[in-house]
Design a protein that fits this description.
alpha+beta; 2 domains; 4 helices; signal; two-stranded antiparallel ribbon
């Protein structure tokens, strides 16, 4: 076997391994504590952290409650760096996330936000997002007075 052919096969094997790893991450069930990168993260250091996964009666898919870290959002004159709780439809979240980085701590404030959302949801007054994480963060920035960050 020639050197060129061996190099090609080795490169192809490495590329295939990387594609398989990414595909495996995309099929990984969402679990509390998982830290994911996501499409359109601004800044690129922003991450999605899974806080809870609920299979709720009457819903066709799980609702995944997340926190988004390192996502500057104006909040009463201050910069909110972590969005502590956002409920998102699982299929939309699956399309939003890119790479599973590992398991970590769920940010402070998540439990409070999650509890308020569950009370509202259980009483018929709370919903969940069906748009991408990038769109949710952009919407929050726009609604709270900050122009969307430039990529």
């Amino acid at each position: 076997m020639g050197t060129t052919r061996r190099t090609f096969l080795w490169s192809f094997s490495i590329l295939s391994f990387g594609i398989c790893q990414a595909a495996m991450a995309q099929n990984e069930p969402f679990k509390p504590g998982q830290t994911w990168t996501y499409h359109g993260a601004t800044p690129v250091s922003s991450r999605v952290i899974i806080g809870a996964v609920d299979s709720l009666e009457g819903e066709s898919q799980p609702i995944v409650s997340i926190a988004v870290t390192d996502a500057p959002i104006p909040n009463d004159g201050k910069q909110l760096q972590t969005i502590p709780h956002l409920p998102v439809a699982a299929d939309v979240l699956r399309q939003s996330v890119v790479d599973l980085e590992g398991i970590g701590a769920i940010p402070a404030g998540f439990d409070h936000g999650y509890g308020l959302w569950r009370q509202a949801y259980d009483s018929g007054r709370g919903g969940y997002f069906t748009i991408s994480v990038e769109e949710i963060v952009g919407l929050l920035r726009t609604r709270l007075g900050q122009q969307p960050a430039v990529k």
